[in-house]
Amino acid sequence: MRHDHLITSKQLSRADIETVLDRAAEIDADPSAVADRHANRLLGLLFFEPSTRTKMSFETAMKRLGGDVVDMGSVESSSVKKGETLADTVRVIEGYADALVLRHPKQGAATMASEFVDVPLLNAGDGAGHHPTQTLLDLYTIRENAGLDDLTIGIMGDLKYGRTVHSLAYALTNFDARQHFVSPESLQLPREVVYDLHQADGAGIREHDSLEEVLPSLDVLYVTRIQRERFPDEQEYQKVAGEYQIDMETLEAASDDLTIMHPLPRVDEIAPAIDETEYAAYFEQAHNGVPVRMALLDLFLQEGGDGDE
């Protein structure tokens, strides 16, 4: 596939996804095979929001490919604090790096930024919009544990503001997947996302306000945090905080083969006791960020830097 940037999972075909996942599997099996492939290449990190897994896994991925990173650092210590625009920031850092990774609190920021740079730009999350690199590691984890076809998946929690949810839902329309969305009414999927999913070929989606009715049929349960920081009103957050949680008692009705995932960080939506069970795949999921992001960077930084994937 050919893409200059990775902004949203909506731009990815099934073939695109499989190209990335297959490359990630090769790297996962033998990381040493790509250890020096991108020596002297630099990845620019521009994180306007806090991040642990995404930022560190991108940095790890680039260094394991033989390259290095240049990091803008915190917003407070950068020229953004002086009023520099995002367009100017990315144009400046483009001059220092061979590719850019951008996280920004405003939805659509990655799309706008990509219009000002010629090096590949990868969206590491734009507000409540999209998080395509997370989606690819999610798909890799699902494929390793349950397969991507003839899949029944439940996606539970904050579906309104959850960019990981939006990206994953769009990507799954490329596969034979039945998607069940579980949330309080106030945190349902945005109507425009629902419309898009219904329009997509093969998209089988259902919405629920309770996990109980669908849990026994699920191959995968993807749990998300209620994102306090995205609520415009603290009182609205308090109405739903802690409403959707799973523990060992909840899972009595689940299939023995259920895989539980979470993009992390979690608060109290998954009981710690589940960590020690065979259901839990969320720490494996976090680990998968390294080989998947190595695969993405490898594909974007091919000889000549032409944006092929």
TrEMBL record:
Domain spans labelled Aspartate/ornithine carbamoyltransferase carbamoyl-P binding: 5-144
Keyword presence, Ribosomal protein: no
UniProt cross-references to Gene3D superfamilies, sorted A to Z: Aspartate/ornithine carbamoyltransferase
SUPFAM superfamilies (alphabetical): Aspartate/ornithine carbamoyltransferase (SSF53671)
Pathway: Pyrimidine metabolism; UMP biosynthesis via de novo pathway; (S)-dihydroorotate from bicarbonate: step 2/3
Catalysed reactions listed for this entry: carbamoyl phosphate + L-aspartate = N-carbamoyl-L-aspartate + phosphate + H(+)
EC code: 2.1.3.2
Biological processes annotated in GO: 'de novo' pyrimidine nucleobase biosynthetic process; 'de novo' UMP biosynthetic process; amino acid metabolic process
Binding site for carbamoyl phosphate: R53, T54, R103, H131, Q134, L264, P265
Residue ranges annotated for the Aspartate/ornithine carbamoyltransferase Asp/Orn-binding domain, each copy included: 150-299
Binding site for L-aspartate: K82, R163, R225
InterPro entries in alphabetical order: Asp/Orn_carbamoyltranf_P-bd (IPR006132), Asp/Orn_carbamoylTrfase (IPR006130), Asp/Orn_carbamoylTrfase_sf (IPR036901), Asp_carbamoyltransf (IPR002082), Asp_carbamoyltransf_Asp/Orn-bd (IPR006131)
Keywords associated with the record: Pyrimidine biosynthesis, Transferase
One Pfam family named in its UniProt record: OTCace
Claim: Transferase is one of the keywords in the record: yes
GO terms for MF: amino acid binding; aspartate carbamoyltransferase activity
Function noted in UniProt: Catalyzes the condensation of carbamoyl phosphate and aspartate to form carbamoyl aspartate and inorganic phosphate, the committed step in the de novo pyrimidine nucleotide biosynthesis pathway.
Self-association state and partner proteins as the record states: Heterooligomer of catalytic and regulatory chains.
Similarity section: Belongs to the aspartate/ornithine carbamoyltransferase superfamily. ATCase family.
UniProt name for this protein: Aspartate carbamoyltransferase
